[in-house]
Protein 1
Amino acid sequence: MSRSSGGPAVEFDAVSLSFGAYVAIHDVSFSIPQGQFVALVGPTGSGKTSILNLVAGLAQPAAGAVRTSGDSVNGVNRSAAYMFQQDALLPWKTALENVVLGPLLRGAARPEAAREAARWLDLVGLRGLEHRYPIQLSGGQRKRVAMAQALINRLPLLLMDEPFSALDVQTRALMENELLELWQNSSATVLFVTHDLEEAIALSDRVILFSAGPGTRIKSDYPVHLPRPRNVSEARFMPGFEDLYRQIWSDLKQEVMTSYERSRAKA
Amino acid sequence: MSAQERKRRERFIHFLQAAIFVIVFGLWELGARYGAIDTFFFSQPSTFLARAWQWLAIPGTQLGGRSIYQHLSVTLSEMLGSFVLGVAFGITLGLMLGRSDFWARVFNPYIQVLNALPRLVLAPIFVLMFGIDERSKIALGFTMVFFIVFFNAYHGVRQVDRNIINNARMLGAGERELARHVLIPSALTWILSSLHTSVGFALVGAVVGEYLAAAQGIGWVISQAQGNFDSAGVYAGMLVLCVVVIIVEMGVTWLERRLVRWAPQADELFAG
């Protein structure tokens, strides 16, 4: 894992992003230390995905600078793994071939890469389904493949865009716990986009709240001081959870209302 | 529906298919025999079936100095030649223009015009250019296969999900790996779904080319029969072609099943 270069894992310095005349993000600055699990929360259309795309190098800022581990992001960020909101598995490859792709593209030899991929599929609970195609897997199983695919490269930075939002509640809690376990055994920094506040607090060390778009800014930034290791489904009964939830929710509610009013005015 | 019911239904469908064949050919035969159908134009099933049987099964039967199998192998090799060339060029150019908005726009009007041109009018030019041997047929088939494969490859590249491209990029794919792992597999599904059509066109190119000017091949056999007012020969030639088409179709379906196991099984009825 490369932690060679100094500086915070992720740093936004007065970053703006626009699509034509539409300003998505306006003058956003924040800094995330190595190894932190950060939840990005905000109303729909608040540019949370854009933040991840900027870190990934899939989008370029109109102004300001995005740095990871002190280096300016320029083109696709080779130190970041990205778990997309929508299904992004290669449908013509089996689960195993999907997971093995990352190591292969980064120059691993096939036998080792295949062994490693099988191990990861086992870790996310897909033993025996290695040779299924995505179409032959359930939504939850596909997410597990995507998680193995993102994690196998052991990159210092993990970007997750509402990865579990399409899952049923039970599967979701299971996968959140698995994610936390895998993360605790690594030293990766995680940026986790969600609009589920409970999920955000239960998983993370810190919740960054974004204002309603367009021209998204940081509304507030809360540390989460719940003890680890955590069990996601029990986190909400921990002391301090309620207060934090109420505090962030009152901020978020305003933004959600603003966003709702704006979208209704447009319609 | 239980498995048994499905089986019974399946059997009934096959029975009806056979029944339709028997009824149509039976009526045709009876009509020809009792004068309701003019055998000069429509021949008679018993006559042309016997003719086809003679060609196929009786050794030493010659058509213009060659056996029917020699004619068939000429036609099939022309078909294969135009198919392989058309697919190779179609895929290459489709992928190239699919990747480049700029060149796609530059070539757009020319491709549209060439595609709108009825390809058969090129046949005389190909005969002048390549003579009456296989090459002019391959050229004609090529112009038909190429465009089908080209458009499918082009759209296959164009329609790849952005998320899948971004995912492959994040996993470490450069331009070349992107083509290999994402663009070509995606285009391949489109190309394969058009395979039935393009194989058919390759055969059309070969047979029509032979029909217009050739010294051998099934198209030539049919054209000779026509020249002799031998309608039984025309129908026997068509029958042989039908058998060939069915065998080729079965091969294509098999190939398709092998290559796109990952895709949801499409409704195969009237696929094309």
Protein 2
Amino acid sequence: MVAAAKRLRIGSRLPAQIALAPALLIALVLYCGTTSWTVWISLTSSRMLPNSVFVGLRQYDVLANNDRWLASIANIATFGALFMTAALTIGFLLAAMIDQKVRAESLLRSVFLYPFSMSFIVTGLAWRWMLDPTLGFEKLLHDIGFADAHFDWIVRPDRVIYTLVIASVWHAAGLVMAIMLAGLRGVDREIWNAARVDGLPTWRIFVFIIIPMMRGSFATACVLLATSVVKLYDLSVAMTNGGPGIASEVPAKFVMDYLFERGNLALATAAATTMLITVVVVVAPWYHWQGRKARMAGIA
Amino acid sequence: MSTPRASRHPSGRRPKRLSPSRVGLYAFLLITALFFLTPLYVMLVTSLKPMAEIRLGNIMSLPAAPTLDAWTTAWSRACTGLSCNGISAGFWNSIRILVPSVIVSIMVGATTGYAMSFWRPRGAKLLFAALMVVAFIPYQVFIYPLVRIFSQVGIANSLAGIVLVHTVFGLPTMTLLFRNHFASLPLELFKAARVDGAGFWRIFLQIMMPMAVPIAVVAVILQVTGIWNDFILGLVFAGRDNLPMTVQLNNVVNTTQGERTYNVDMAATLLTALVPLCVYFVSGRWFVRGIAAGAVKG
């Protein structure tokens, strides 16, 4: 590192410093500045407008007793667990199958990935229409002879979160597939050959050899999916608007509603700070691991 | 790497018939493909039916007499709140937001990535780490102070404001993309240019950027789809007169009074999805490269 830096010291670095100025300014003022401001507001008694009355962690206490927040947390936990499991499983299965030299590979890849190019608003509205209890799939089931069939999950408080899972798995499974496919193609062919010579059945090769070798792909996919879980907002707005009742409320929507509609800045920023801490807790170990890996490979 | 892919399987004559596992494989892929295509199909057929047919038939049936009425209504007559001008206004707003945002964010990202990779100015490493962290943080953490700062500076609810916001939140990915690209170039190239007396900007504009065209294409794809699909930033920062298409679409669907016009809703939804879908199908493998490169790998 030091040697590389010395080798590079040819001429003035002033232009480089100037070129970096916009990014530095953005990082200092618009990232760090706003984050500290948000954390600070969460420690005050601000309502409609920010004030400077320090109240310690009282807002977090209020938050911990707020039904809507607790529902949001429970919803996002259910959603996150189901969505990540389903997206990883389906994405990996699709990649593993597409990797078996199937016909029309690129067509299949396009079909699985196209939902990812569309927005959550489009995704949410499309699924809301299909799951419509009067005219959607339920009517289709009735029309083809299942007169007693029910598929009204989107209006049922105990089931609505599953509809968000279905829509977002449809949206993201292709992304997982693309990441996994890249991982699979990165596995040395010799490893396959060696395992086959040893007479291992395909599923055992996958479970005991290939999947452990692909932990980098899994980690990347996990981190991407996990951050999209924490950020989940548009889909809930478009598909159910948090309803019925508060059955599909999510933390990001809680923050937005309390910031801009309910005029409780301190509570909203306390919720936002909680989200921030969650993300840092999730991302930090992965980031550390990636950094160590890069250093071991001699890149950093 | 150069080993032929076929070597994974035992050599010899191909089995004549499909084995049961092969049939199962194709069956799974086919069923999953149909599941993935269903929403697009349903949106399309719904948008081509009149409301009477939607009420009587089912969502999977083909339209008896396809009509584009819902599409023209969605484009130019659908109501959002009090005004009934369709979502065409949203489309043009999105274009007006998209073009400057894509250009500015890529310029700033490319410059930052370039400065970081070859010149290693003071604070570059720390800045890069900060950018990588920000890429994961939800907007809710920044949004309120940003609104306050923007209204102090006088760019709240304006085109300038939304372009700046897209630049600010596009910076991590764009910087990563270009930094990784420049870091992969041979250092000798840079040194040779230095020996020939080229300065910071000259190396950037005449040597590095022409070599960065592929990565710039990836950046354009990422930013066009990302900014077009944005909802939350447009909602908060664009202001009433510049609301992007996604926000208008959500308003159209949610402000329908009386009976819902599902055909118009779906036509509007498809219209909003059209730009990213075109980008996706035209760019093909580049799109995959884009998300792979954008998938933050420190």
Protein 3
Amino acid sequence: MNFNFTEEQEMIRQAARDFAQRELIKDVIERDEKAIFPTQHVKMLKELGFLGMMVDPAYGGGGMDTLSYVLAMEEISKVDSSVAVIMSVHNSLVCYGIEKWGTEEQKEKYLKIMASGEKIGAFLLSEPEAGSDATSQRTMAEDKGDHYLVNGTKNWITNANCGEIYILIAQTHPEKKHHGINAFIVDKETTGISLAPHEDKMGMRSSDTHSVMFSDVKIPKENRIGEDGFGFKFAMKILEGGRIGIAAQALGIAGGALERSIQYSKERKAFGKLISQHQAIAFKLSDMAVKIEAGKNFTYKAAWLKDEGQQYGVAGAMAKQYCADMAMEVTTDAVQIHGGYGYVKEYHVERLMREAKLTQIYEGTSEIQKIVISRALLKD
Amino acid sequence: MKILVCISNVPDTTTKIKFKEDNKVFDTTGVQWIINPWDELALTRALELKEGSGGKIEKVSVALVGDKSSEPTIRKALAIGADDAFRVDTDPGDSFYVATQLKEIAKDYDIVLCGIESSDYTSSAVGGMLSEMLEWPSVSSVSRLNIEGDDVSIRREIDGGQEIVSSQMPFVGIVQKGIALEPRIPAMRGIMMARKKPLNVLEPIEAETLTEYENFEMPPPKAAVKLVDEENVKELVELLKNEAKAI
């Protein structure tokens, strides 16, 4: 087994770290507090090539492997998960979905402008009454012969406002249940699409999350992805890859919390010595580091499996579930190490704790991951 | 027109420095290596000049004296935007030795930029030696550099102010902070291209190493800070006089 990163992977990790520690750190507290969208930083993501970094260079992407993407996500999430989630949805869900299952025409028309970061993508699956239970899609895409007519509402959509290209999941044949679901590429400017106000979230407050309403929206036939009824399978396949990105995000959040805790415990004194010299704190730091290391092994392995063309669904689910739950524990410990300072915004760890919580919820809750893992275990 | 930036492979600035072999040799175990920060700023400015030259500057090269282990640092420079690179395959020895090696590469360029010092041994000598060997003009402490016609316009930092000078080309610029705002972060495309750019490995030319390190010493640990109440000037004076012996 080779646990070494390649020179390129190390350079990408360092580039993401420099970007995060030099650029994202500025005003991150204010952006979070006032829910300011990181417009400038998304522009920098584009210039540095982090948008579309895994897309084939033939379509203008970076042609990087999943592990490189994981390392970039991890470093960016150490500082600002709002920026990381914009990047994650764009790369893991939208670009990947079109590149893997789109037609050549769809790739020419949509993938190229997303691989360059010129346009951002959003993935519209969740509904007010279909979150974890994604089979219960109520948004309808009626087959009208030469086009589909879409009506319904999508919820919790990351990049809903900054994104210009949507992948929409909707029901076409309700009688066929989830086998009747389709996936479509939708231009946000299409008549009949409107956004609800920005969601006022607990964490990752500066990413733009909205509900998206569809009222008699016409989608050309050629914008359907795959065969009729492929939509549910498509969404599940995409989420398999998405989990690796969110695992990396959780890993970064935990890593950021540990870095800050080490620094703080070497500066703060209590009872006449540095708190790092108290076993209660030193052991806590050790526990955090052990958990993060385990999370790295889960996540890097899942990324490696994907790059090797092997099955990675269960490995990704394990990585996502473990890292999300672990990030919650580690960030809680980081707040505890910081004491009262941990509870105020200036020291960042309370924000990391709020961000960690979302990784247990979105792109498949921790409970959904357990369903994925246990079903694989119990399969005859 | 061509620009050469001379770069050094130095330990990351957060490295914990340790020595071995009776404190005669720097212990490189576990050290992360980076481009010397001043050299990285010089490279950034060279790339800015090339981009703004409308094709007048045809290329920016980097040169480094070091063994194969320094190649990741060279490739980082290529990822940032240098067009090609030279590595003289030998231990850097000392400033005289390095300058001698670089001279052979530098003679084909119009502008040669060196950082004002390297963050490891801080000899601050290579740039000056190089210009002397080439018999070219050199300007040190350069904090701004522009090309104006056939000359370069330079701002340099001097005691209590700044000096604006111009020089003919070819010339050697020994640059310091301010030459560029901050080093560039390599873009993904640059990282992928880095391996495809030419990295020429050259055999060293014979030269002497004129210095040797007898012993390294760590600086004394920082003393604890004593806080004196702002109203208690008498105690402050007492401490400065008798304890710190500063007055």
Protein 4
Amino acid sequence: MPQTKSETVPVRSTSEVVMVRHMVRRWAVEIGFSIVEQTKIVTAASELARNMVDYGGGGVVVLEALDDGIRRGLRLTFEDKGPGIADVEQALRDGYTSGGGMGLGLGGARRLSNEFEIRSKPGEGTRVMIARWKGAS
Amino acid sequence: MERIPILKMGRYLLVSIQVDMDDRTALALQDDLTAQIVKHRAKGVLVDISSLDVVDSFIGRMLANTAAMARVLDAETVVVGMQPSVAITLVELGLSLKGVRSALNIERGMELLQSVARDTEAETADAADEE
């Protein structure tokens, strides 16, 4: 997938979660996402960035603007070296939480994205990739 | 840390969230609001979120918790001005904000608060009459 732009930013605190929201918004606007598309990917990014801070001990997010000649999109990869998730299926279920949250973060982020991929190994960390395409529902 | 100002108008508290809040700021607002409800014996809280272009599960939970705590303290909460894209996203996220009253704008929100406050006052008066 040809990538037109890429950037990696650290996320270690709740104020950096806000920075991620602003950055993702800027990129989504640049790609030409509609206001609803922007809001969906910014909200998904906020959930996943917060998960890294709350459960993964912080991590990094990689932003990538994509253009395959036909469609334009935004891919975000969240990577932490935290304790990992023992049961990914369970973590994706709405209402499941190991902390004090509502348990909507992972499942919600998946619903708000066109593509979703998660890899996690207990003791090694978690990597979540989401993507949205301009004009996709 | 930033703090969101809370204005008092008669028996009501007004909050207009103009910044993208981090989680700690959101929790501080929740605490401040419950404290102010008690301090001013407020009957209603109006929260204007028309400037917010993102409401994620954390902010959503803060709004729902605030409404629940206010109710226990005998005050009603109305959230006004939610942007359509935020509403669409919240529903897809899985957050229905059950128990949170909402209105399109501040004017309608104030009307709603006043009518709810009148109803509860009438009930209280009726109960007193019966005694």
